[in-house]
Amino acid sequence: MTRLTIASFSRLFIAFAFLLVAHSAHAAPGDVHASADATKVGLGDRVKLHLVVRTNSNAPSDPAIDVPSSQVGLFDAYGPQTSQSQNITFVNGVMAATSSFNIDWTLVGKKLGAATFTPQVKLGGKVVKANSVTITFVAAGTAPARPPPRPQDPFGGMFGGQNPFGGNMPFDPFGMLNGQGLPDDAQPLQPQPTVPLEPKLAMNAPRGNIAFLHAIADKTSAVVGEQVTYSVYIYVDPDQREPDFNDVHEASASDFLKQNLIDDAKDNQPVQYASVGGKIWGAKLIRKWALFPLKTGLLEIGSMRLAVVGSRGGNAARTSESLAVKVDDAPITGRPPGYVAGSVGHFSVVANVSPREVEQGGGLGVDVTISGTGNLPTSLTPPPQEGVDWLVPEVRDDVSSQNGVFGGSRNFSFVVHMNKAGAIDLGEIAVPFYDPATKNYEVARAPLGVVNVKANGKIDAAQAKADQPLDGLPALKETLAREAPRKHLADRPIFWAFLLFCPFSFVLVAGGRSAAQRIRGSLEFRRASPESLLNKRIADAKAAGKLSDARALDAAIAKMIEQATIVRAGVNVRALTIDETEDHLAVRGVKRETAVEIADLLRACEEARFLPDEGNIEKSRERLAGALATIDDLGKQKVSQTA
Amino acid sequence: MISRRFAIAAICVLATFSCCSAFAQEDPSPDALAHDAVEALRAGHPADAIANFEALADRGVVDANMSFDRGLAYAQRVRVGGEQPGDLGLAVHGFEEARSLTSDNALKEDATKALGIIRAEVGRRRARAGNPIDLEQTPMLRDAIVGLLSEDSWCVLAMLASVVSAAALFLRWLTQSRRAQVSASVALAIAAPVLLASSICAVAARNIRLHRVEGVVVSASARPSDARGIAIPSADILPEGARVRIMGSNAGWSEVRWGALDTWIPANAVRPLEKPPSD
User: Fold this and answer.
1) Reported ipTM
2) CB of B17 within 8 A of CB of B48?
């Protein structure tokens, strides 16, 4: 056992000594050594490939990375960036200078796969290759979390200058031992400590490079006066250089009453960590407000804005999200009388009256303290009554934030003048409020009690009454009026119909009558055709034949014959003599015998009409029959109607 | 076993009933609120009365008597020395609303009397402060004409004019008498314009009743401003208790017309008047 322990100790000592030398020197003079920040990197993430060259003579040149050609497409390489340091030692009076050159490449994975990198430089004209480093590019978000590199801590003061993952270096940071030379019972490599992630700060993707702002409201709907907690976090990429911030513009929230829940000026909030797109970012709370909505509607909380000063000197603006909160009135159901919109929270009221005995006209003090959480009422309306004058109170606040909820106490100190003698009950202070936690209304009450006011006659009651304004107001009404809904004439269509109907009725009647007359005349005109007139004349003649007036019958016969010649022959015999009648009818094509008969009939009728006696009705009737036959015969003949 | 189950069920039913009853009691009925408000007003507790009257209004109860009493409550609070800013304007609002809502002449008279008392006090205060004491502006000519008669009066006048016009037309058309025709022509010449004018006024009155929103200034510091909310330098503060026409509102401001003055004031400085329900 002892022998094994000594051997183990010896190996351990050797390894430690070797480690010490390696840690202090990184590489022997003239040596090159390559390493990488990580051996597994997610696609799109950056990894640094370091090459350290120690030389005490020539400076290295032409740095390059040798990669198998099949692996070139797996990544993009940027750089190199070179920095130099020098170490000067004096040993026995002899100065020795050693230079270290740090050459860094930045690699970004493009495709999945493993690539082996062999950095090389030229030293004194000779190509010197370093050890190979294999880096595996895996899917984004699946690579192991990497601690932020200590030399490039971007949080600076936010971390207090310390590595947030602890100060212990890995046991074998460069892998030089490769697991060899260590005693069997040597301590294994310590695993990298993991950081607790805050789930509520996780995001699917970053809102900007290097750093960005993220705003959160604890609710999207509220009632007027209900606290909405607004927080702004700044997220910083741990892989980037520490950015500076300036040109800060606060978020606007003009529709809210704002109370700070943290001191914006003090930078003492702890840093938290969150997964953003699968990568760990640092997040720090920089603003936390209690916002109390002042009105209903969709109220907007604007964006906070600042500028990120980049590593190359340029400024990039970063803004937080603008948020909206839907604000409604507290529900009507159950709302107690005297509730003032905005009294939301949970309150209690305590009142103290001192002294309890005063002289008439004297004063006393009433202290009312409202305490609780939420939107404490900013004013208090004491119960007014005759003879009691409440002066404007002095208000003192003792409010703060407790566990993210705004509250505290507000004290109202009143001076009250008692102008009326007797035992005066001051009433009570009642503060109705809406509790959003229970979604119920409550009333915080504090009775003020009775005050004894001694009469001293200094105040004239009549004068006091006379000083009261608004004298002579009517008496109050005891009950609801409950008037029936009014009816209005103008709301009824029949009113408008009647209004228009009256004058338009004239238009309708007069216009209708005129139209009827026109229609009638038109019909009569159509009825009074020559043919119809002939028929009428024939009917009249027949009707006259039934009578005993021979003259009238002969006249009717004559008219009938005249119309018949017009209709059937186109000859108006009224314009002709009886002798001319025959010729004119014959010219029109009427048979001679018919024309003679017509002429004879006309002659006979004329002679009979102008006889001194009344004539012979029988002969007239015979003439009628003859005329009818002649007209009938005329109708059968084809006579030219035109001249 | 059965009786035990029955007892448990009965207890549950009673408990549910009492819970429901308790819940029902938490939200007072309008009648209860009105009763409490009137009692508080009678007892000289204007703050409690105001709280109950406003709770009644919040529940949508539109009643002429309650509006009148609400005005009295605000006035009483001023009387007893517990005046809050805007109490006089709110008192005017209550009385104006009572006058608009009611058809009872007695209530209208009481409201008018109360308005006179309140406005006199407002005028006194404005005079002491050096402000103009004009509390009412001359209405626009159109409104003055329409306001000569009530809406139904214009309707009745229009109906009469319509009948007379029709009768005159018929008479003139049918009669042969020269005197009758002249009389009919004269009647027509008078009735036709009256019909037209009264119809227009009836339409305008109806439009005012249905669409116009009026309110009362309930702040003693309602300074006229422009549409951007910037106070107009030379304008006098609108008198508390002034009856204005509300033209519109935007972002916490209301555009109002007071006489011939169109201006913007904060929305919480003017309270709209309820309209009487119509059938």
Assistant:
1) 0.76
2) no
